[in-house]
Design goal:
The chain is built from 15 helices and 18 strands. The protein is of the alpha/beta class. It is globular, with a radius of gyration of 21 Å.
Length: about 450
Amino acid sequence: MPSAPDLLIQSATLLDPGGGNQDGDPREADLLIRGGEIAQIGKNLSPENVEPFDAEGLTVSPGWMDMHVHLREPGFEHKETIETGTRAAAAGGFTAVACMPNTDPPLDTRDVVEFVKERAEGQPVAVHPVGGVSKGRDGEALAEMGDLAEGGAVAFSDDGAPVWDAGLMRRALEYSRMLGMPIIGHMEERSLSTGGHMHEGAVSARLGLEAIPSLADDVMIARDVLLAETTGGSLHVAHLSTRGGVELVRRAKARGVPVTAEVCAHHLALTDRAVEETQFSTNTKMHPPLRSPEDVQALKDGLADGTIDALCTDHAPHASFEKEVEFTAAPNGIIGLETAFGLIGRELVAPGVLSLAEAVEKLVAAPRRVLGLPVPRLEEGRPANLTIFDPDERWTVTEHDIRSKSQNTPFLGAELVGRPVAIYNRGRMAVNDELRLAKAA
């Protein structure tokens, strides 16, 4: 995308929870960007030779981050590439993403981490690779974690697979403490989950499908919380989905254990009933699986009381031919970047589970704090890292709204609340309508 000229964002509502406006209350102002930095914030600004962007009725916040995505490159470019994945991220309002290591080859060596960073250069969406905990992500030998960190990794995970060996996880957490970087845990005890295709409960029993009990996640969370408590290493719980898991994290935080957690937008919007209601749509198959209504309520409660730190997507593209099979044969996962904020608005902000400022904080500051990254702010002299959005727009998802290379979403036809309009980052502007045209071309 071409570099954006100096820019005047006019008549915007500025929202920066935790920034210079300490109470987080929105304020009406213009925002002048020069040389990629916020040069001035004020009302009725009228600089010469500056391109205007009319933001009346729109909100501007620091740029959002999705700390859990799968960009698939290298190795699975038929599903997604770094270029198409960052295009989808920009359309979803994200100025930064952290990409998981389950590629081919995996992100378990410095050269592959550096490859990802090089491929992402020049994009308005910053890409932060997550290195593997173990070599080959097979859970048998530690990856060279220090070397991965020097190459640009921001965290470590075997996501897509658990670190099944407790001794190896203990050593990884010890290195985590020394490096000051978190271990992102894929919480799954496979002796309890292997062979399952959906959440274990009344729906799976009625459908006759082998299922995955909540206990499979909870047992691993409990193990890793104890290991983090023993070692002092930072543990981040990926894609939390169970009420038991929420309670384990809540109690661990109360004891002072260095643990954080995230939840995916789709786990707030759908339950295991969707499998039955869609007659086994493979776009309702994911891991962790869609859980019960009681689990969904516990996740929302965990967000409201601060137990769950960050909101994310676990954006997991798959080609159509991979998903257009029987439910039991289909791979897990759905795309989520383009629909995340609309789901957050519908499921959290509109019903009052979180205020808009609280939801934005879980998209801006929380993921970056977990990963030890600088948090962007709406302050003069700071780099312009911005998301421009309409928090109130009600819109219906169509395939034209999908910028990803893949289309595996259960939300086509769904009405959402809140819509990203554009991002500005790294001296570049990406407007949603222009991204649609870029994909069509």
